[in-house]
Amino acid sequence: MSQPLHTSHIDLTVDGDQRSLDIDNRLTLLDALREKLGATAPKKGCDHGQCGSCTVLVDGRRVTSCLTFAVAADGMRVTTAAGLGDADTLHPVAQAFQDEDAFQCGYCTPGQICSAVGMLDEVKSGAPSFVSDDLDAPPELTADEIRERMSGNLCRCAAYPNIVAAIGRAADR
């Protein structure tokens, strides 16, 4: 029996575990993760791609999962903040967030951490940002550069100074 036209079968690797789903084509990656797979790290904040609390890594690149259809991630590796590090050791970015007290209520923290991991990989690859002085030179990770690259992630508690410090600390590790 064939599937209805508005559904698809997808395979994802979520936080290292192979998962298969039959989903409505209109389902967002965020809703697939939270409602179908029980992943609670990505949060539904604005549901419009404006706050970044739903940020996850898809094949290593940061995406706002509330704006990404789950079918677009078929066959890809999805990493949430819960999938970074392991049971005994925090990921270096998560450890830096803890060391710098870079959270208050913690709602945005999983998205902030995933975004920071993706952003640090972008910096390592030499990708410039809007505030990069020289587009051909390797980016220098200044506080302004961190703030610009993390501008898609909002924190209602205004823990920004500590978030910037945590990302700087993680970059130095």
Automatic annotation (TrEMBL):
Gene name on record? cutS
User: What UniProt keywords apply to this chain's record, in alphabetical order?
Assistant: 2Fe-2S, Iron, Iron-sulfur, Metal-binding, Oxidoreductase
Metabolic or biological pathway, per its Swiss-Prot or TrEMBL entry: Alkaloid degradation; nicotine degradation
SUPFAM superfamilies in the record: 2Fe-2S ferredoxin-like, CO dehydrogenase ISP C-domain like
Molecular function GO labels: 2 iron, 2 sulfur cluster binding; anaerobic carbon-monoxide dehydrogenase activity; metal ion binding
Protein name stated in the entry: 2Fe-2S iron-sulfur cluster binding domain-containing protein
Q: What is the lineage of its organism?
A: Bacteria, Bacillati, Actinomycetota, Actinomycetes, Mycobacteriales
Report the PROSITE patterns cross-referenced here.
2FE2S_FER_1, 2FE2S_FER_2
Limits of the 2Fe-2S ferredoxin-type domain: 8-84
Pfam families registered for this protein in UniProt: Fer2, Fer2_2
Look up and give the organism this protein is from.
Answer: Mycolicibacterium gilvum
Q: What is its EC number?
A: 1.2.7.4
Q: Which InterPro entries match?
A: 2Fe-2S-bd, 2Fe-2S-bd_dom_sf, 2Fe-2S_ferredoxin-like_sf, 2Fe-2S_ferredoxin-type, 2Fe2S_fd_BS, Aldehyde_Oxdr_Iron-Sulfur, Beta-grasp_dom_sf
